[in-house]
Each structure stands twice: as C-alpha cells, then as structure tokens.
Amino acid sequence: MTTPATRPLHRDWRGSRGLFDGLRARWAEQRRLEAHARLEDDLRGLWREACAGVGLCQYISVAAGLTVRTPRFGALRVVRGRTTFTTELLPGGEPEDITKHALRLAHSLGFHGLRVDPIGGRWVRIVLLDSDPLRDGFALRRLITTRADETVILGRAEDGVTLGHALADAAHLAVQGQNGAGKSAFTYGLLAQVCAAPDVLIAGSDITGLVLGRAWTGTAHHDWQTTGTRDLLAHAALLDRLVAEMDRRLDTMPPRRDKIIPTTTTPLVLVVLEEFPGLLRAAQAKDKKLAERITSAVLRLVSEGRKAAFRVLMLAQRFEANAVGGGYARDQFALRLSFRVPGESLVMLHGEDARKLGPEHANSAPGIAYLSAPGHDCTRLRAPYLGDYGEFCDRIARHGRRAS
Ligand SMILES: Nc1ncnc2c1ncn2[C@@H]1O[C@H](COP(=O)(O)OP(=O)(O)OP(=O)(O)O)[C@@H](O)[C@H]1O
C-alpha cells in the first residue's frame, strides 16, 4: 500500500512570503508610476502656465482663433531626489530664453531654482533645484600655486563646476560688496593661493591694514605694500613706485615682444587696492592734489599695466565711477565680481542684463557673488573660504615667498 502524499498542515511561509513580496512590490511600483504620472501632469500644466505667464510663448492663429504655444514638456525624471524634465525650445528659441526667467519659472513650479542643460537640437533638460545649491560652504584646500599662469580658484558655480582664473591672463579684477558680504574673505583666499609663487609679487595699498601689511612681514611682498591712513603720502609714493617699475618694463621690453612674460626676475605684480574709494576720500579730504596723484597713478596701472605683467585687484563697497577714479578706470576691469550689493550696483558693474538678478542678490549670504568676464554671462558662485583671519595669517607666514 502506498502512502498518500502528505499535505503540510501549516503553510509554507517561505513560499507565500515570496508570493506576497512579489505582489507588494508590484503594487508599490504601480503606485509609484501613478504618482509619477500625476506629478508629470501637474508639472506639464504648471510649466505651460508659467511659460505663458513670463511671456515665453508664441501666439498662433488657427481656424478656431488664437492659440498659445509654449516650449513643449517632454518627459519627467525623478532620480535619487533630483527632479528633471526635458523640454523643446520654441522655434528660433535659445536656452537663454529659459535661463533669463529661471527664478520665476522655478517658483511657479514650486522649486527654489532651475538650471538648463542643453541636450541636442532644440531639446534641453531642466534641472529643478529644491534649495540653493550654493547654500553650503566651500572650503579652500591648502592649494598653493607655483606659477603666475597656474589657475587659482575663484569659486564654485551653481552646477558644481569650480571656476578658476590664472593671474597671467590679461585681466584686472574688480570686486565689490557691502560690509560683511565676503570681499576680504575672497581676497584672503586668492592671496593665500598665489603668495608662494616665485614669479608673483603681491603689492598694493590697504587702508585697513588687514589684507596687506603685518601678515606679510618677512615675505618678499611686504616691501611693496603700504597700509593705514596715517601716512597717505606713503600710498601715493608706493603707487608712483609701481608706475615707475611698469614704465621701466615697458621701456626695456625685449625685441619682438609686446608683453612681459612673468619670471622670477620680472614677476607678475598683483597690485591690491583694498577699499580704494576710502583711500581716495581720505586723500581728497587732506589735499586734492594728493588725490589726483593717486588717481592718475592707478589710471596708468589699469590702462597700461597689462602688457608689463601688472594686474590690479581693486576692492570697493560700490564700483561707482567717481569713487574708483572715473568711468574709464572702471572700464579697464575685465573680471568683475559682486558680493551682496543693491540691485543698482549690480547693474553698474555687470550691465543691464544683471538687473533681473538684483532683488535676490541684494539679500544673499556672505561669500555668494556674481562673476562676469568678457564673453561670459553673469555666473553665480560661492567663493572659497579658507577660515578665519588667523588661518590667513598662518598661511601667509608658512607659504609666503621669503625675501631673499
Ligand atoms: N566664502 C565664504 N564662505 C563662508 N562664509 C563667508 C565667506 N565669505 C565671508 N564669510 C563670512 O562673512 C564674514 C564677513 O566677510 P568679510 O569680512 O570678507 O566681508 P567684507 O565684504 O570684507 O566686509 P567689510 O567691507 O566690512 O570688510 C566672514 O567673517 C565670514 O564669517
């Protein structure tokens, strides 16, 4: 007699768990797809309304009347908390049509901001930002350049790209910002990066005596720096000395050369003018002729210095023409950086295109700035931060090129 096949009294939990797990995973996936489709529909509608609202649309006449055409919404993707969607630009459109309304479009979609990444043809990807990508600090590593043509870090842009600049590139640098906006911290970072290079000399005038001066004692740079407001003649004399050195270089330019290449014997001279309008105001109050002498020396450095390997880094709260030696002087600055300033000051330094950026930037956190350069749109960035003032002093003491 054969034994009947035995049926287990209890369920095989392992088997049924596998079955339920599979079902649960399918339900979860279905719910996810439904939620995704709902979000896609919502965003598609909001995108259309937002585009029409900012005027990013075309009106087309059809048999039934006038219809509005907006950049077509493609597909939504939400991956690891990052929300993106594709969109097709209007015929004749450019990605800038979207970037110039970026904030208003993003706010209409319920996000903090957006970024536009071109994909190909008329299609672009819109990356929606939940929060300010520049919210987190950006620590300056112990980066020390060894040559004037090496890149120094200026900051990190919203897309995470690190923006750099080589002093050897023929550009003077203008930096403006209200009190506490981050001008000095930026300058500390920049100078700490170049202070060791054997072909760079850091010279200049600093009425505050914090950026230049005492921290540079014992370095090769110290002899070319003047600080404080007690002896304003010393500032004029230092600037005259720099102009004389510039003239000497221009007069002794090697044959078949039209510019000086920085070397250890003819270093690139970075002329730092910390709070320059303050120096001019103080000089004007004392003696108008002294103010004129300072202005004309600076004008010569900014207009003729590039070929002689002179670069000027001028810092001011506002880059108003009459505060920085006139409109002609201001025009000589190719690289322009604005920390928190009122909207009007932003326009003054970066042009009319920056007007729309004004309201938000007027309240931005210390260390956040707009950078513009010839051929480059205004880019928002976070300047690197090397730490407190003591850390700056330590880095200069440790790495600053020694006086030979
Ligand atoms: N890039 C940055 N990242 C983080 N914090 C920063 C940054 N820059 C500045 N800060 C903070 O803001 C404070 C003020 O910055 P800073 O002294 O550079 O301003 P400032 O524009 O030079 O002001 P002032 O005109 O009064 O000298 C710093 O002490 C620091 O705490």
Key descriptive features of the protein:
Rossmann fold; Threonyl-tRNA Synthetase, Chain A, domain 2; S-DNA-T family DNA segregation ATPase FtsK/SpoIIIE; DNA binding; four-stranded antiparallel sheet; nucleotide-binding; FtsK_dom; 404 residues; 16 strands; alpha/beta
Walk me through the structure.
The structure is a single chain. Helix 4 runs parallel beside helix 11, helix 5 runs parallel beside helix 7 (288-304) and helix 6 (276-286) packs antiparallel against helix 7 (288-304). This protein has helices at residues 13-54, 95-99, 102-108, 183-194, 232-251, 276-286, 288-304, 327-331, 343-350, 358-361, 389-399, and strands at 58-62, 65-69, 72-79, 82-88, 113-120, 123-129, 151-157, 162-166, 172-176, 200-206, 225-227, 268-274, 310-316, 333-338, 368-373, 376-382. The protein has a 10-stranded mixed beta sheet with strand order 8-7-16-15-14-9-13-12-10-11. The mean pLDDT is 92. It is of the alpha/beta class and 404 residues long. Helices cover 35% and strands 25% of the residues. It is elongated and about 85 Å long. The longest helix has 42 residues, at 13-54. The protein binds adenosine-5'-triphosphate (ATP). Adenosine-5'-triphosphate binds at residues 137, 177, 179-185, 339, 366-367, 383, 385. Adenosine-5'-triphosphate binds next to helix 4. InterPro entries: FtsK_dom (IPR002543), P-loop_NTPase (IPR027417). Keywords: ATP-binding, Nucleotide-binding. GO terms for molecular function: ATP binding; DNA binding.
